[in-house]
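Dock adenosine-5'-triphosphate; give full complex structure.
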Amino acid sequence: MSALLSLNSVETYIGGSRILRGVDLEVRTGEVVALMGRNGVGKTTTLRAITGVLPVRSGAITFGGQRIDALPPDARARAGIGYVPQGRDIFPHLTVEENLHVGLVVHGRRGAAARAALDRVYTLFPVLKEMLSRKGGVLSGGQQQQLAIGRALLTDPKLLILDEPTEGIQPSIIEQIGDTLKKLKDEGLGHNYSQEVQNAVKGLKAEGKLAILLVEQFVDFCRDCADRFYAMDRGAVVVSGPIAALTDEVVKEHLQV
Ligand SMILES: Nc1ncnc2c1ncn2[C@@H]1O[C@H](COP(=O)(O)OP(=O)(O)OP(=O)(O)O)[C@@H](O)[C@H]1O
Ligand SMILES: [Mg+2]
């Protein structure tokens, strides 16, 4: 089967420094692919190159058989790339319902089609239905994450890109208290959130219509949900394969801090 998304020797620069050093990666329809690696190795930068937020200096990105690396981000979104950035990105002053409607408006869906799309999101994330009139900003981190994913799904993407969906806490705070919070996350704080996201990823996978590219540092989550993985180090992919090849040795060498 030909790839839905493929990156060939992609290089990007930020302020004169080369951040991606020839990234090769593929995602096929119906597949969940985990993009892994330690902090600062270029995972988010890879996603930003795919979505068009960051220009590519050299190499090629194709989606659905078309070159997309020269297209602006909105054209890539219309082509079927849904993106949930790291740190969620919901509208805090709009209600849950209004946030979801943004997704519907982007896709131009109305009436019965809109209701069916919303029902799919409520089935995946029941908590959203209970909180429709709440402001996005008062939801917990994990609920905001679900809202961001739900909104992205309402644009009906062929490829859903998630940057650290189990990260239930503000990245800036994580940086400040790093290890302590990581530990809390492993001990359950993030796990509660990730359970819902994990179930949703599995549900979407079972539907088989969508591809998911997931940046995730939580190894168990990847082993549970993903079909294949790529591990990056210093701006390039260093190991990849079926998820069964994500052995403890690979984790130790390329992923553990
Ligand atoms: N706007 C920027 N200006 C300068 N350097 C940047 C910028 N954005 C990213 N970088 C650098 O690019 C490298 C890759 O960053 P990136 O955000 O892609 O890492 P990451 O793998 O997503 O890390 P994390 O796990 O912490 O999210 C890092 O060394 C980072 O310092
Ligand atoms: Mg990142």
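Observed: Residues 43-44, 86, 163 surround magnesium ion (ligand 2) (CB under 6 Å).
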